[in-house]
């Protein structure tokens, strides 16, 4: 992948993702929340329900990169043939995985949650069609990033010192969200296309879907000892405000 631009990577921080999603056009009735466990019922009880999507931050280890390359090997060239069920964007902005993870949620939420006259709908969603190529949709995301100026407005908002945009980071954001076909999808702009995990067993609250928890646990189990704790999760659900 050749990056046409590089940005400062976003921190896994609900306040940053809430600020950016509101700027883009997400309704204030939804917001991001930290997820501290997939299995602890007491911790999960604090999450507002239903959870519509999950963002996972995980380490790009040697084991993972081998798994990714092997899994995508031999896959046909994806060209938005599942457009009616799921929206996926190829990542062409270096270190921009946080933005892509967010857009993979916002583009696949019911449109009632998106404010029509704001930038997401005007500059991206309204421009998409079943005839849009992967390259065309990638260009639209690049134009959107230029409009919101990710670095100057969001790249340095975190609680830790932000790396330079030129640095390559070994942490990566991906999204888990339901498509219109009621399938659970793993969406990662570095992969060959959307990854269909199968029919979702739950109406809305995807944290109850074992396919989700098993896939995230798979990534955790395959991390080396040095990276066992380099994971973070955020969920999007009803706002607490």
Automatic annotation (TrEMBL):
GO molecular function per UniProt: cysteine-type deubiquitinase activity
Active-site residue list: 97 (nucleophile), 172 (proton donor)
GO CC field: cytoplasm
Pfam families listed in its UniProt record: Peptidase_C12
Superkingdom, natural source: Eukaryota
Entry annotated with the keyword Nucleus: no
InterPro entries with a match to the protein in the record: Papain-like_cys_pep_sf, Peptidase_C12_UCH, Peptidase_C12_UCH_sf
Site description Important for enzyme activity, residues in chain: 188
Catalytic activity field: Thiol-dependent hydrolysis of ester, thioester, amide, peptide and isopeptide bonds formed by the C-terminal Gly of ubiquitin (a 76-residue protein attached to proteins as an intracellular targeting signal)
Enzyme class, spelled out: hydrolase
Signal peptide coordinates: none
Site label Transition state stabilizer, positions: 91
Keywords attached to this entry: Hydrolase, Protease, Thiol protease, Ubl conjugation pathway
Keyword tRNA-binding: no
Span of domain UCH catalytic: 6-238
Gene Ontology BP terms: protein deubiquitination; ubiquitin-dependent protein catabolic process
EC number: 3.4.19.12
Membership in a protein family: Belongs to the peptidase C12 family.
PANTHER family on file: UBIQUITIN CARBOXYL-TERMINAL HYDROLASE
Protein's UniProt name: Ubiquitin carboxyl-terminal hydrolase
Organism: Debaryomyces fabryi
């Amino acid at each position: 992948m050749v990056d046409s631009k590089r940005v400062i990577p976003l921190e896994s921080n609900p306040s940053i993702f809430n600020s950016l999603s509101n700027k883009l056009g997400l309704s204030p009735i939804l917001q991001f929340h930290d997820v501290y466990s997939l299995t602890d019922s007491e911790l999960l009880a604090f999450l507002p329900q239903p959870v519509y999507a999950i963002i996972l931050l995980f380490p790009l280890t040697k084991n993972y990169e081998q798994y990714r390359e092997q899994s995508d090997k031999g896959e046909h060239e994806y060209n938005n043939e599942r457009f009616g069920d799921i929206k996926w964007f190829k990542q062409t902005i270096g270190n921009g995985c946080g933005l892509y993870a967010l857009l993979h949620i916002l583009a696949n939420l019911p449109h009632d949650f998106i404010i029509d006259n704001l930038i997401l709908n005007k500059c991206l969603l309204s421009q998409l069609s079943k005839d849009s190529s992967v390259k065309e949709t990638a260009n639209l995301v690049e134009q959107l990033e230029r409009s919101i100026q990710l670095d100057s407005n969001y790249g340095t908002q975190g609680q830790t010192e932000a790396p330079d945009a030129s640095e390559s980071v070994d942490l990566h954001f991906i999204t888990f969200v339901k498509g219109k076909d009621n399938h659970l999808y793993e969406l990662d702009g570095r992969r060959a296309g959307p990854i269909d995990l199968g029919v979702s067993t739950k109406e809305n609250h995807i944290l109850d879907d074992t396919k989700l928890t098993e896939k995230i646990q798979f990534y955790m189990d395959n991390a080396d000892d040095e990276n066992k704790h380099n994971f973070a999760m955020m969920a999007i659900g009803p706002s607490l405000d």
